[in-house]
Amino acid sequence: MATTTTNGKRKIVINPVTRVEGHGKVTIHLDEAGKVQQARFHIIEFRGFERFAQGRFYWEAPTIVQRLCGICPVSHHLAASKAMDVIVGADKLTPTAEKMRRLMHYGQTYQSHALHFFHLASPDLLFGFDAPVEKRHVLAVLAAFPDVAKKAVLMRKYGQEVIKATAGKKVHGTGSIPGGMNKNLSIEERDALLKDADTMLAWAVEGLDLCKKTTLENAEMLLAFGSFPSNHLSIVREDGCLDLYDGKLRAKDADGGIIFDQVAPADYLDYIAEEVRPWSYMKFPYIKSLGKEDGWYRVGPLARINNCDFIDTPIAEKERQEFMALGNGKPINATMAYHWARMIELVHSAEKFKELLPDPDLQGTDLVVTGTRRDRGVAWIEAPRGTLFHHYEVNELDQITRANLIVSTTNNNEAMNRCVNVVARAHLEGKEEITDGLLNHIEVGIRAYDPCLSCATHALGQMRLHVQIIGPDGAVVDERIRG
Amino acid sequence: MVLGYGNPGRQDDGLGPAMAARLEALGLPGVTTDADYQLNVEDGADLAEYEAVVFVDASKTAPAPFTFERIAPATEITFTSHSVSPESVLAVAVEHFGRAPEAWVLGIRGYEFEFQEGLTPQAQANFDEAFSFIRSWIGTRRE
What we know:
The complex is a heterodimer.
Chain A: E1 2-6, E2 9-14, E3 21-22, E4 24-30, E5 36-43, H1 49-53, H2 61-64, H3 73-87, H4 95-127, H5 138-144, H6 146-167, E6 176-177, E7 180-181, H7 187-194, H8 197-217, H9 219-222, E8 231-236, E9 248-252, E10 258-263, E11 272-275, E12 284-287, H10 291-294, E13 297-298, H11 301-307, H12 314-325, H13 337-356, E14 376-383, E15 386-394, E16 400-406, H14 408-411, H15 413-427, H16 436-448, E17 452-453, E18 465-470, E19 476-482
Parallel strand pairs in A: 3-17, 8-13
Antiparallel strand pairs in A: 1-2, 2-4, 4-5, 6-7, 8-9, 9-10, 11-12, 14-15, 15-16, 18-19
Helix pairs in contact in A: 4-6, 4-8, 4-13, 5-6, 6-8, 8-13, 11-13, 12-13, 15-16
Chain B: E1 2-5, H1 15-26, E2 33-36, H2 43-47, E3 52-59, E4 66-71, H3 86-97, E5 102-109, H4 121-142
Parallel strand pairs in B: 1-2, 1-3, 3-5
Antiparallel strand pairs in B: 4-5
Helix pairs in contact in B: 1-4
């Protein structure tokens, strides 16, 4: 943390945000009276991928997009594949291909959600927001709750094994291709995964119960923390069911009113626009019909559970109903409810393992379809962190001429900034001393959104951070680079 | 176990996976290789089964051509899921899977980390020297 004073205003920089994917920066501007004037969450975002994709052949996209992020490569792999399905005219995949992709996606969601809750969020919930730094990490969870933490490691391992069995390999998986898949699931792979599927579901339910119990025991504090009304955006199935792999776009307002529904991928630019703000590399998407001021929204587990009408797996549906009862049927707008919603999806993913793995379609050999070639492909997927848009245009030489990606964390950009403001005003205001515990409140709020700030490289000793302090006249007052 | 990690789609960040692939091609008896974008907590479960592990990563700061250091399980972890350190992975192995292997980090100096496949010439030269070293070192270990 660093504190600077410029023209009577103090600026507090918290950096890096620990236990968030990648790294980011929080700046809190205090006035002379010590009140929070403004708080911002800055994201050090990689840039240039869209330009990099230009000139590449379309069939390379599902593989090369995995360069974007070492944390959620499967989401990009599948989103690009779906967009390229449109390019090759594959309007309906074979049952084997679609089920293999879905299995891959549930594997990604399962391992990502397990990691986030047990290893990143649970210290906040189990030890409290004011816990000392030495307790705010997974080793403390390992020490205090060894059984839970060990199960979490094995749950993540299982999810990775699902990915390896479907994508072909862990690094730059190639399983999903335009029009389908290039592999099915062997009997050996199926049996290895089936053996532990019951256990994975049981452990997911245990995790959900732990999250629910902790949240309800501390409901007054947790559900008020970082709570603010918002719109919610996600894809849903045609019948309103939760669907993490495919569907049409739905947006609800803070009271549950439908803003739009069943928007097809190809039409997304009629409904969503992106605002550029000078202080952030990351854009701020918004719902066009509501405008920049009111059109921002949340995405991710909370938005998905709020938006869907039901879940097509029994345990997750029962849990969804219990969750939604908190808001008497209206959307839940509490930031910390993200964790509970995430755990419902963890259970849902495990239920889907059990549903999909015994399906003989996974051993089918009809893997790829094609149709009428198109020059524009737009697709989306519900990545663990939220809706992920991929949009490509391709010329007659099969080269990508334009790419536009809206990643989950970008969709949550304004919501995270609102959260930082709400939390800063509630928990830093008027304090004479800024403690680690207070600062952690800011991080807890951001962490709930599970932002992925990865720049996709992690070399030892690489530059992780570039900090600039800008004075009121726009000049750089101070500048620091941290490794 | 030789575990290389990094993103081959970001130039020299792919040094680790490249080393794992090169050693895998040799098919050395008693040597297992693996590669991933980054280290993960679940690697602790796998590594507990091995006698020794060499983590191979790209480094932006190591003196060229490479560094090779013995490491021990961490006693305190500053943890982000984006970047789990080798020491933290060993700590998970000890805490929950009973033991950690002897462990080293081979940090190969890299220079460029942009959206592009393939190593830079300087990194390739460092890689070749690191490969000769680690192959010889593995031979010594197996004697």
